[in-house]
Amino acid sequence: MNHKLISLVAACLAVGSTAALALTNDEHKAEMEKVEATAKADKKACAAMKDNARDICKAEAKGREKIAKAELEQRFRPSPKNEADVKSAKANATYDVAKEKCEDQKGAAQATCKKAAKAAHESAKADMKAEKKAEKAVPAKAANANKG
Questions:
Q1: Which of 20, 25, 75, 100 has its CA 20 to 30 A from that of 3?
Q2: Is 5 within a domain?
Q3: Is residue 92 one of the residues assigned to a domain?
Q4: What domain of life (predicted)?
């Protein structure tokens, strides 16, 4: 009974871990073509809109494209840098869309909106910087622990 359970768990783990494997060149190319086709369709959908709604739509489309490309690159060549690029793309896309949404407001409300968007973006960038610093500190601590 226990051997069957262990085999089942091992099989599930093996299947789950294959999803984490990097993409082949052909898979990467095919996925990139899908991302670009989706981005083109998203941008085309924005053409029917008017004024700031179109600008917001375009910012959202560009953001989704940049995020998708960063995530694809992370799946193709997993690395801490590419992982950071995904987080950066998400933060930048959120900021760009927020700025466009602020354009719907007038006067002081618009200024306040833009200030809040910038503050959120700066906070996200600071979080990424702190995360990167913490990641660098962990290997240094491990290296020092191995010396002793």
A1: 20
A2: no
A3: yes
A4: Bacteria
pLDDT of 72 > 80? The answer is yes
Residue 60: which domain range?
A: 24-147
* Contact status, residue 62 vs residue 99, Cβ threshold 8 Å: no
94-119: pLDDT as tens digits: 999 999 999 999 999 999 999 999 99
Say how many domains are in the chain.
Answer: 1
Residue 132 in contact with residue 79, Cβ under 8 Å?
no
* Domain presence at residue 45: yes
Confidence check: pLDDT of 81 > 50: yes
Residue with tokens 């940049």: 66
- Cβ(83)–Cβ(120) under 8 Å? no
Q: Which residues 6+ apart lie within 8 Å of 58 measured at CB?
A: 43, 46
Largest CA distance in the chain: 71
